[in-house]
Amino acid sequence: MDLQSQQIEAIVKQVIAGMKGTSAPAAKKPAGGAIPKTAHVAMLTKLGHFDIKEYPIPELGDDDILVRVEGCGVCGTDAHEFKRDPFGLIPVVLGHEGTGEIVKMGKNVKKDSAGKPLAIGDKVVTCMIFKDNPDITMFDLNKQNVGGADVYGLLPDDDVHLNGWFADYLVVRGGSTIFNVSDLDLDSRILIEPCAVLIHAVERAKTTNILRFNSRVVVQGCGPIGLICIAVLRTLGIQNIVAVDGEAKRLEFAKLMGADKTVNFKDHKGIEALTEAVKDAFGGYYADFAFQCTGSPVAHANIYKFIRNGGGLCELGFFINGGDATINPHFDICAKEITTVGSWVYTLRDYATTFDFLKRAKAIGLPLEKLITHKYKLENINEALETNLKMEGLKIAIVN
Ligand SMILES: [Zn+2]
Fold first, then answer.
1. What's the CA-to-centroid distance between 150 and ligand 1, angstroms?
2. CATH number of 20-183+367-399, picked from 3.30.70.120, 3.40.50.1100, 3.90.180.10, 3.40.50.11190
3. Which end of the chain has fewer CB within 10 Å, C or N?
4. Residue 193 CA to ligand 1 centre (angstroms)
5. Which residues of 283-309 are buried (b: 16+ CB within 10 A; e: fewer)?
6. pLDDT for res 129
7. Considering the entire predicted model, what is its pTM?
8. CB 264 within 8 A of CB 393
9. CATH topology of 20-183+367-399 equal to that of 195-342?
10. What's the confidence (pLDDT) of residue 245?
């Protein structure tokens, strides 16, 4: 064979390898293709403390998938469990915002929950674990969110042990929802779960029929949830967004995510002055629609004042019970005819929508990956949770 035909052969091989796309080119396999005999998990063994434990990787059933974990976001829920164990799960392997690579599959596994083929080397995320609930099927889900369903990272410990994403391996059992997200980079994959919360919130907001391309939208609270809310609205094509928060740094970030103007509530004494500042930011108008993204009862009570007659509100900040808020039903809801929706968690369909949102956000130049302000190794998970509890940074991630 002469040199030229050797080169041609090499190019052809490359092209064929490229055409296979996500279906497991050899290079994507774990180093050496070897799967270790044991895996490590961060087990929350008591309040405020994880122990790194080592367990054998069990035999896989025909419907099971073994995933090598690449990373997992730290969620507010993880922080609550770490501090107080409100769900009574200890001992537990936490971490539900995780992603990784398939290293082994049972013989029955062919496709993900959206019908996309699955192969060794594919990058995946999990969502809920199906229970015997006939109302929950893949694309019949907008009627019901997945709150209350089982997810990896909030399962009680059992003899498999590899039950959460704060680990180096996870066993995904048959009957779980799993998605092939090989076309998203690691940071995007770590952000899928929190982004799905906002895809759902905006879908809920759209049911009011008030949200339009040219709507004036106020987003109150610029933690990760409020910031992603702004990014979702901007990616939808809504430009007239005013962000409200008490921290200059977060408000700067809100602009990066697509907010047009920002209002720092610390610069304005009292709700009248704050309302005027929000109106000024909209050029003298009230908001058509508001997203309440804080867990503060005062913030909930205040937000009605920013909304015009006939406007809408989506409350999603009270992800957990943050106490009662005092409003005046006559002035705040009735006389202004405000349409309110609540939003909590997401549906499976929202999960799939989120993959496309992440690609579109990137395409219009929103630097979502900057939301991940801290990355820790699994062995430093205690420090990661302490950082989260100190409210430092935005999204904290464990990256293997
Ligand atoms: Zn979460």
1. 13
2. 3.90.180.10
3. N
4. 6
5. eeebbbbbbbbbbbbebbbbbbbbbbe
6. 77
7. 0.87
8. no
9. no
10. 98
